[in-house]
Structures are given as C-alpha cells and as structure tokens.
Amino acid sequence: MGGASQRPSLNSFVVELKDVDKEFQIQRETSRLLGSASTSKIQALSRVSMRLRPGEFVFLTGPSGAGKTTLLKLALGLDNPTSGEIYTLGQPVHNLSETNRRTLRRQIGVIFQDHRLLNSLTVYENVELPLQFLGLTQKERERRVLEILEVVQMKAHAFEKISSLSAGERQRIGIARALVTTPSLIIADEPTGNLDPVAARALIRMLRELKGNGTTVLIATHDMGLVRDFGGRVLELVGGSVPGADSGRDSRAYKVPRFWPAGAANDV
Amino acid sequence: MTFKLALKHLFSKPVSSLLTLLAVSAALTLLGSFWTIVENLERVRVTQIDISENGAQPGITVFVDSKLAANEITSLKKKFLDDKRFKSTELVAPEEAMKILEAQFGETLTKVFSAEALPITLKLQFAISTLGREEFLTLLNEIRSLPGVLDVDAGQGLSAQASPMGETPVFSWATLLLIAVFLIVALLVSHLIRIAFESLRPEVETLKVLGASKFWIFKPLLVEGIFFGVSGAIVSLLLLALSVNLVLPRFSELLLPKGFEMLGLSPSASLGLMGVSLGASLFGAIFTWPLIERPAQEI
Fold first, then answer.
1. Which string of DSSP letters, residue by residue, matches B120-159?
2. Cβ within 8 Å, pair A120-B203
3. What DSSP state is assigned to residue A197?
4. Which of A19-33, A137-151, A240-254, B5-19 reaches the highest mean pLDDT?
C-alpha cells in the first residue's frame, strides 16, 4: 500500500516531549446543601521528556492512573500540556490550532481499548472512514480497505455489521482502521484490555510486525506479561507520590525499567 | 457519505428515531391545532350571521343601477351563480328593499326616495359556510367593481367579522396565544432534535480523534435534523387533516357550536408549519455545533 502520510527521516523524532507538565484541576463538593466546591490540583505528568524514533516499537507501562492515557492524549493533541513542548510527526502540537491538530491526527493510527467502532456502519465503512478524511478517491479507498482487511483476516466480514463481531474481531477491525492510512505513527491505548490472552498476543504480534515498515508503534498497557513476552523498548511511568495536603502536587517521573534496551536511556 | 451516515444513524436505532419523530410530530400537531383554531376564528362565518335584529337576511345584498336593462341584470345574476361560492341570487321586491334600507339607514332615506326610484336589489346566498377574512373583503371589492353595481352590503355581522385584526378582542388573544405556542413548539422541537443527537456523542468524539473535520461530522447531523423537521411536519399535517376531516365531524355536535364547520389549515399556514418545523430542527442541529467544535477529550 502506498503511504498516505509523509514519514519522518531516521534522524528526526516521531514523537518528542520536552519537560512536559500536565496538571488537572479537580472540583470537590464540600457542601451538598450549599452546593459549594473546593478546587484541588492533581499533577498527572511532571517534567516528562521522551523521544520516539521512526520504526520503534515501544510499550508505555505503569499502573492505572499513572498518566499513560494523559501522555497519549497530549501526543495526539487531544489535550494541552500545562507546560513544556510536544512534537508529533515534527509538528509542535502544543502550539497547533484544533483544525491543524485534526489534520495531524489523520496521519496517526489510533487504536482504542474499546475499539470505538461506529456501530451504525459496516466493517468496510468503518475502515474506510480515515481514508475519507484524507480525501482519497473511492477506487483508491476500496483498494486499500480490502487490502488491509485481508491483512487482518477480516475480508470475509467486510459487509457485516459491527454488532455481529466478537470482541477480538472488533479489535482487529480497529487495527485495520488504524493501519489503512499506512501511518508512520500508531498510538494504542490499552488495546488488549478487552481481549483474552491469545487474542491479545495475536494483536501485539500484528503490531510488532509493522516495525519492519518503519512504523513507530506506541502501546500503553499495564499488562506486564505482554511486555515481557514481546520486549522492545519500554517506558515506565511511575507515580512518585500521592497528592498531599502540603504541596497539592503528585510528582511523577520516568525511571529506567529493568528490561530497558541498551542505549535507550539516552532518549528519556 | 453524508446521506449514507445520516440514514445509518436513523435506521441503526429505529425505536429512538421513531420516538423522536413522534415527539416532533406531536409538538407540531399541537401548534397546528392552535393554528387551525385561530384560522377558523379569523374566518368570516358567512352563513351564520345573526342580523335578524335589523331585518336583513343572511348573505350579501347587492345594489344595482336601476337603469340596467333586463338582459344585463340576468347576465349579472348568471355571473354570481357561476361563482361556486354562491348558491342562489334573488331579486328583492322594491318594498322589501325599502325595508332593508330603512333598517340600515333609517326612515330619512326612505322618506326622500320612493320605492320605484331605489336601485335594484339582489340578494346573494352563500353556498359555503366560511370565508377567509382577506378572501371575503376581496370578494366584496370584486362585486363592487362589476359594471352596474352601485354598492354591496354585507350586513353588520359580516362586516364586524371581517374587521381588521385588533378590533376583535378574541382574534388578538388567539393570535397572542398562537405566537406563544409557536415559540414553545419551536423550542421543544429544537430541544428534541438536540436530545436525539446526544446519543451520537461517543461517535462524534471518535470521529474527532480520527481527524474528521468539523463539517464532515456536522453534515449528517444537519441532514438528520432536516429529516426530522420535514417528516415531523408531514406527519402532523396528516394528523391534522385526519382529525379535521374525519374525526371532528363525528363529534361536531359535542365540540363545535351549532352549524359551525371547522376547516383544515390553509395552504399558507401549512407551509408556515413546515417552515417552523424545519427552522426549529435546523436550530436543534446547530445546537450540536459546540460539541463538534470543542477539542476531542476522550480516547
């Protein structure tokens, strides 16, 4: 399949975070009777810096609430950092307008934990969606959709409704939708969360094979079994402390995990 | 893809779509009912005027120049009979005509003129029960403009009913009520459409993450809004037509004043109802714009 997006050169970074902080303001109800509320801050990410090179296969790990999803959202331009700089596919996401962020996201394959397929559409139509946003001709769209459905072994189900598919099949369609534009970056948030171990391994294997095409794959997961089985580069988000009454801050930092590949520490 | 996606939304949740359509239709039927009542209040009830106090008969009295030849009067009578709104024309005897004039203008006039010197008086009986206010006034002017016609008397009852808006308190209040119902129904319809689109929120969020442009997401919603607006108006107009033509006549003795014939919405009011529905539906679709415009928040 032809590339729909411009691939970054080997010397550039597909994703780069520089001293990124992300703070959330949480409103807590202090009096139900009066309806009053107090505001407290939660530090989701603290001074996070990371770089992903073209063709890297990276696991982003950490316990629930560690900030994995927040980091992915920032890389996708779905949220703004409190401070710091984020570059995705060479674009300064922190400075981009919403319209430009949407254009950028067309060049990124996104895989969701709950697949997020449109139930009103067929398998074919779901996979075709990202190609529509790129403005490809119907003929080209058809060629690509059928090709990618063949790759994920779902061509026979092309014109079936999403509701008739199993969880594993739906996730394969989710992957097909992410891959159909041949993106140079794939971001997956807990893609194996709803799958049985066999289906989960098959899915990761499929994504792992993309490494050969020069596609960068960033997978957020808390399934350490998968991480051990597939190796690759691992970034672990570790919560430094619980939000305290003193500082009101929850410091988080990166640490080098025990299965860190040689040389990768320089990127963090 | 816009129409395809809109249709898929509608048919993927048939019960929800049907309930929205019914709710929109119900709201519009409420508005249509009020509109029908106001239009009927506004109509001139041409066969039900109580003008017996002044001795006149129901209908229109046409005063024709006495110099007209007999064949010209016959031709004039034929012209009225050809008009389907009239069922009969009757030449009033001079003595009877004098009584009509006496009742209308007092004895002074009749003392000055003899019965023979009076204009020829034609009594026109309506074949229909009601006429629109504008139509009634136009008819009077048309008759006045006919050659040989000196004047037309529609009777005090008829004239009062055809008086301009504002002079009839019932009409003013009914119109105000109609405006209030109009606004409430417009808000209700737009809110119903917006609620129907709330179920599409996760889909909208997904499309935003995948990079869909704002207009790409908005277009199917706009088409759905138009669908609900147009089909809701059609259903409500059908319901109104059914109730006015089939249901109401069966219970007219219970529900309507004696001899009162309820007419359905006029074509212009029907178009108005369609316009309200369409406008409110588009407004409802536009309400979803903030949801589409704001940055995607979930993955």
1. EEEEEEESSSEE-HHHHHHHHHHHHTSTTEEEEE-HHHHH
2. yes
3. H
4. A137-151
